[in-house]
Amino acid sequence: MTPDTSKGPGDLSDTGPVNPVIPGFHPDPSICRVGDDYYLVCSSFEYFPGVPVFHSRDLVHWTQIGNALDRASQLRLAADVPSSAGIYAPTLRYHDGRFWLIVTNVSKGGGNLVVTATDPAGPWSEPVRLPGVPGIDPDLAWDEDGTCWCTVAGIAQVRIDPHTGRTYGPPQKLWSATPGAKAPEAPHLYRIGDYWYLLIAVGGTERGHGVAIARGRTPSGPFEPCPANPILTHRSTDHPVQNTGHADLVQAPDGSWWMVLLGVRPGGGTPGWHVLGRETFLAPVTWVDGWPVVGEVALDLPELPWPLVPGPVEEQRDDFDLSELRPLWISVRDRPAEHCTTKERPGWLTLRARGGSLDEPDVVFTGRRQQHLSCRARTLVDPSEGCGGLAVRLDERHHYAIEVSGGEVRVVARVGSLRTVVAAQPVPDGPVVLGLMIGDPPPPHDARTGPDAVSFGVEQPDGTLSVLATLDGRYLSTEVAGGFTGRVIGMYAAAGTVHFDWFDYEPISR
After folding, report:
1. Is 357 helix (H, G, I), strand (E, B) or coil?
2. Which helix or strand (DSSP H or E) is residue 366 part of?
3. Is the separation of the CB atoms in 367 and 358 below 8 Å?
4. Is the pLDDT of residue 12 over 70?
5. Best CA proximity match to 435, nearest among 491, 384, 388, 379
6. Are 218 and 226 in contact (CB under 8 A)?
7. Hey, CA dihedral for 17, 263, 454, 341, is it positive or negative?
8. Containing H/E element for 458?
9. Among 304, 364, 374, which residue's Cα sits nearest to residue 335?
10. In b/e form, how buried is each residue of 212-225, taking b as 16+ CB within 10 angstroms?
11. Helix, coil or strand: residue 479
């Protein structure tokens, strides 16, 4: 299949707009509208820079315009911060001429913080710390008097001054759905019509995930639960999108209401494995008797009653000709210039090793999220001064890679406590093109079949990929590894200095 490159990453079909609207590891979406423009942010966990920021004019086509936490003074993640810790669940709002982003840094010395900007592409301010705000998943809402309310997972609320971080009184418990419900979290508070609506996630972010809502006359309640709760869940269904929850509401260009939410696309046999992480989906919302009714989270979205406005086409190849990396590139925990730069050798990305391998928490790795169930990636590597290559990473204990050094190329697999060289072969000295392909698993297929297969190889002069090894993709899935992230495909240095002339990512299917 040849991908349609005239469409954005959320639209690879010929039939119209599709879900997920932001595919790949983009969980916990929060959205706001400013005039005709929409802005959306997601969690980033242990990756740097943190909190990707997207822009759209139609809710379907999204372009990443920056990262809110893009410098060390805003985001410090030490090597001992576990994978799937770090930056959790931001909320993005627009108030009084500024964008406000509140988020939790789940690491030592972190906590809840607020950053602001007049331009969501950045720069964003230095953080205002909120030591009096406990927990995760913070939300911001302002009432008619200008009072700012911060609501957190639990579900609890405290009045704050977002300019200074001061809190007024202890957090007060609100409504948290059914007594004993698992993980009431991801609160968002809105004034819509005559009511304040409190939207929350319930059931945990796994297969039991769902969305519930309540309403009250004041931002602090008391809150009356919707009789139809949960208003969205796919648990115990055969829907291709599962784990639906952690939602936010927004009005479309025509005034209709829509919901952005996270979900996953499990594949393979039993129990089903999702490999791209939790992705951002879009669903229609109607209002009945003062309550929101959520429509289908369809893979093919219905025809929309407003014009579609595609953004710029994402370039498949990055030649590293810019002085700074594009916003989509992320690294593990930090990105010091002395270890990752495009300025040392013009037109090349230079990575200087720090940890010994992808098994180490301080590995020098720069990658992009895998956004398609089937894709190819390639890079031209000059290993003359070190050892490095091309990897598919889920965390330190779950990754596959092809690396080159000393005239030899090797495919390395790490699954849990096991690490092995799967295949090796000699290569001529000098730069080499390493490649990988992710697609359907080989037959036979039964209840135990994994979601996909990952093949690694060396590209020949005629452009064909000489495959060294094909590995089962299930071991790079959340169901195996645990945690909250998805696959990231990229380049790394395991020893010395490694140069990369270009990186190419080609989607094959959505």
Report:
1. coil
2. strand 364-369
3. no
4. no
5. 379
6. no
7. positive
8. strand 453-459
9. 364
10. bbbbbeebbbebbe
11. helix
d(CA 352, CA 497): 4
Backbone angles phi, psi at 481, to 5 degrees: -85, -25
- Distance, in Å, from the CA atom of 353 to the CA atom of 157, rounded to the nearest integer, reads 45
Contact by Cβ (8 Å): 468, 456: yes
Report whether 270 contacts 238 (CB < 8 A): no
Beta strands (DSSP E) in 164-321 are 166-173, 185-192, 195-202, 210-216, 224-225, 232-233, 242-251, 257-264, 279-288, 291-294, 317-318
Residue 6: is it exposed, middle or buried by C-beta count within 10 angstroms (0-12/13-18/19+)? exposed
Using an 8 Å Cβ cutoff, are 489 and 365 in contact? no
Which of 11, 28, 58, 395 is the catalytic position? 28
Q: Six-digit token pair at 51?
A: 């909190």
Q: Rounded to an integer, what distance in angstroms lies between the CA atom of residue 492 and that of residue 421?
A: 17
Select from 199, 200, 231, 196 the least CA-distant residue to 216. Answer: 196
Out of 46, 70, 185, 248, the active site residue is 185
Q: How many CA atoms lie within 13 A of 349 on its CB side?
A: 28
pLDDT tens per residue across span 227-263: 999 999 999 999 999 999 999 999 999 999 999 999 9
Quick one: tokens of 124? 């964003």
At position 33, the amino acid (one-letter code) is R
382 is annotated as an active-site residue = no
DSSP E strands: which ranges in 8-107? 30-34, 37-41, 47-48, 50-56, 63-69, 86-95, 98-106
* β-pairing verdict for 86-95 and 98-106: antiparallel
Q: Is 241 exposed, middle or buried (0-12, 13-18, 19+ CB in 10 A)?
A: buried
Instruction: Report whether the peptide linkage leading into residue 451 is cis, meaning its omega lies within 30 degrees of zero.
Output: no
* pLDDT-derived band at 2, boundaries 50, 70, 90: very low
Reduce the DSSP state of residue 378 to 3 states and report it. strand
Of how many residues is the chain composed? 510
How many whole angstroms separate alpha carbon 307 and alpha carbon 320? 34
The type of residue at 165 is G
List pLDDT tens digits, range 121-165. Answer: 999 999 999 999 999 999 999 999 999 999 999 999 999 999 999
Task: Report helix, strand or coil for 185.
Answer: strand
Whether 44 and 68 have beta carbons less than 8 Å apart is answered as no
List, as one string, the DSSP characters of 259-289: EEEEEE--BSSSS-B--S-SEEEEEEEEEET
Is residue 185 annotated as part of the catalytic site, yes or no? Answer: yes
Question: How many CB atoms are closer than 10 A to CB 461?
Answer: 6
